[in-house]
Design a protein that fits this description.
Malonyl-Coenzyme A Acyl Carrier Protein, domain 2, alpha/beta, 10 strands, 6-stranded mixed β-sheet, 4-stranded antiparallel β-sheet, 15 helices
């Protein structure tokens, strides 16, 4: 078995889907499921069809060996992460597993919003495309993961380089434009801090994107947003998404600029009864973070990724998903 699952004797726990965002993408992610798993394929095609002509190009770049637009470009990484997160969510539901709660990281929150019936899939797909095409005009920049607490990095922040995400007690994502982000990163490395570039050509969760992000507000105002039908812990507030927030176009349009508070949100999620955490997207980045949480270390909650950690052949991808299905259908409450 290629997917490391919890012990077979584990007690049933309510399922919480963790939906990853920028940085989780990689070439070939989940392509082994397309055309093989009927539910996954149908859900992915829902997104591509909703996008119209651009959806065909996105799908071709995702499945092709020589994409016309690189995976880390905002018009590919964001929309494909949204697509795969959503399609995997529908796949899990098709197994008869009903998630008890959702938590998305960055763009994963948009996928969570569809799974929670805040937006229809068609509306959300078009909103995502409107967002990414606007952000494509943004300044060059990126994100860097630093092995340090957010407070420890405060003396180094300047020139629009900010804390873009708080992922774990000692994992902070810095975001900002170049050359400033590169300058801050060099200083941190000189101080002995471990820094890793997050795959992105856009400075997500940085104030330099604010003017472009704000222009998406009318598009959000033009669609109907409903209160979440499932509990959705927002990665931006570390609290349940309220009906008022769900109906606020400014709330949604601000996401590319706002700081992601994944660790506080995970802390909120795991503060009560045990959960079966399921990483519902490409990679195992959120699983690695969640395994550091005291509730997981103590055995009260468990972590299960659906897909391999990175690029893998089709058989490995399918085997991992099949192993996850076998475990979840037997051990989810």
């Amino acid at each position: 078995m290629t997917n490391p699952t919890p012990a077979p004797a584990a007690e049933p726990l309510p399922v919480a889907l963790l939906l990853p965002g920028q940085g989780a993408q990689h070439p070939g992610m989940a392509t082994g499921l397309y055309g093989h798993d009927e539910v996954f394929t149908g859900a992915a095609d829902e997104v591509f069809d909703a996008l119209g002509a651009p959806g065909t190009h996105v799908r071709d770049d995702w499945l092709g060996e020589r994409p016309g637009v690189p995976m880390d470009h905002v018009t590919r990484s964001q929309i494909l992460l949204f697509t795969i997160d959503y399609a995997l969510g529908r796949t899990v539901e098709s197994w008869g597993v009903r998630p008890a709660v959702l938590l998305g990281h960055s763009v994963g929150e948009m996928a969570a919003a569809v799974l929670a019936d805040v937006f229809t899939l068609a509306d959300a797909a078009r909103l995502m495309w409107d967002r990414v095409t606007r952000l494509a005009d943004g300044p060059a920049g990126g994100m860097v993961a630093v092995a340090a607490a957010p407070d420890a990095l405060t003396p180094y922040l300047r020139d629009d380089v900010v804390v873009g995400a708080h992922n774990a007690p000692r994992q902070t994502i810095l975001a900002g434009p170049e050359p400033h982000l590169g300058q801050v990163t060099r200083e941190l490395r000189e101080q002995g801090l471990v820094c890793r570039t997050v795959p992105s050509s856009t400075p997500f969760h940085s104030p330099v994107l604010a003017p472009l992000a704000a222009r998406a507000e009318p598009a959000f105002a033009a669609v109907r947003a409903r209160p979440p039908a499932l509990p959705l812990i927002s990665g931006y507030t570390a609290a349940p998404l309220t009906a008022r927030q769900a109906a606020d176009p400014a709330w949604w349009s601000s996401h590319p600029v706002a700081q992601v508070r994944f660790w506080p949100a995970l802390d909120h999620l795991l503060g009560g009864p045990g959960r079966q955490l399921v990483e519902c997207g490409p990679g195992r980045g959120l699983s690695a973070l969640a395994r550091r949480h005291p509730a997981v270390l103590a055995g009260r909650s468990r972590v299960l990724p659906l897909l391999p950690a990175g690029p893998a052949d089709a058989s490995r991808t399918r085997d991992d998903l099949a192993a996850a299905r076998s475990f979840l259908t037997a051990h989810s409450a």
